[in-house]
Write a structure and sequence with these properties.
By secondary structure, the protein is of the alpha/beta class. It is built from 13 helices and seven strands.
């Protein structure tokens, strides 16, 4: 499943959305800076200060995956809300949330995806029409990432291939691999998410899909609790929830489970994405959310190399409100 200090998200806004909207509205922006549009992270949840800049920016808020998002654009708008960076303290709010879970980052993620996060992401990763445009965009972006993994494995005979899908979410990757014959161990830190994955698998089999010779195993455990030995290990859109030091440990652990391939995705850390993430933290969402982290690709690759893996393929998925770097790795 298949991962910015904003709402629990598996994605963030792609910068190309900024350019498109900025170009289209540059003339209008010059006349009315408070009404121009900048694509900020789709999962902004920090509190706004009571300032004119905050009020002007809030007038541009539109629907996102958390129900609220930012629709500001261009340099003038960034300057208008820039003052809010010192007036709000999203990190403190995140620390308070983590403290409420005993100081454990993973426990905070678990609590979120077993409560309000489950209802939100069940819809996004589902087929319901009860989603807004941003949620639909995120659904499509995530599915593009999943489809790339499926395309990478299309030439493999998956019958009997053992796969550990760590952080499986609602089964968007685990289920199609299982229906291709793979022996799946699908796990998620959230019992609600992995329970939904099992329900969806059973529904597809009842609807006529051919069940694999070995039924998939669905288990509610954290990524670092996964054990065993597998031909392929996958971890899609999960690392966004954890800081770099913990991600390095996760990569090492996942690598230790794989005898052949390791496929992971993460939100890449760039200057543009970092700025968008920080601005997005200023805008409120309707519920609590987990931390979210961007990761430098060179750091991720260094951790993979240290674990004995080399990157053999890489892809980037970027929609308006979702971006994810996907890496396929093999033992060096």
């Amino acid at each position: 499943m298949s991962a910015f200090s904003c709402s629990a998200a598996r994605a963030v806004v792609a910068p190309k959305a900024v350019a498109k909207r900025g170009d289209a509205r540059s003339a209008k922006a010059a006349r009315a800076p408070s009404s121009v549009a900048l694509a900020a992270p789709a999962f902004a949840t920090a509190s706004l200060a009571s300032t004119p800049a905050a009020h002007a920016a809030s007038e541009a808020i539109s629907q996102t995956a958390d129900g609220v998002g930012l629709a500001v654009g261009g340099v003038a708008a960034v300057a208008a809300v820039g003052g809010l960076l010192v007036a709000t303290d999203p990190e403190k709010r995140r620390d308070d949330m983590k403290a409420s879970s005993g100081g454990d980052e993973a426990a905070s993620v678990k609590d979120y995806f077993n409560s309000t996060g489950f209802d939100r992401w069940k819809k996004i990763y589902g087929e319901t029409d009860d989603v807004n445009k941003v949620q639909m965009d995120i659904r499509e972006g995530h599915q593009q990432t999943v489809d790339k993994v499926l395309a990478w494995t299309a030439g493999m005979n998956m019958e009997g291939v053992t796969v550990c899908d760590a952080g499986c979410g609602t089964g968007s990757l685990a289920i199609p691999l299982a229906l291709r014959g793979a022996t799946i161990a699908a796990s998620d830190i959230s019992s609600a998410m992995v329970g939904e994955a099992e329900v969806r698998f059973n529904e597809q089999v009842k609807a006529g899909a051919k069940a694999p010779s070995v039924a998939p195993k669905f288990e509610a455990i954290g990524l670092e609790e996964c054990s065993g030995e597998y031909d392929v290990v996958t971890c899609i859109d999960v690392m966004i929830h954890y800081p770099t030091d913990r991600v390095n440990g996760m990569i090492s652990h996942l690598a230790g489970l794989s005898t052949d391939k390791l496929i992971i995705s993460f939100a890449p850390k760039t200057l543009a994405y970092s700025i968008l993430k920080r601005v997005g933290e200023l805008f409120p969402g309707p519920s609590k959310a987990t931390r979210a982290y961007l990761h430098a690709e060179e750091d991720v690759e260094a951790a993979l190399n240290a674990a004995g893996f080399k990157v053999t393929r890489r892809e980037m998925t970027a929609t308006q409100f979702y971006f994810s770097r996907l890496l396929e790795c093999e033992r060096a």
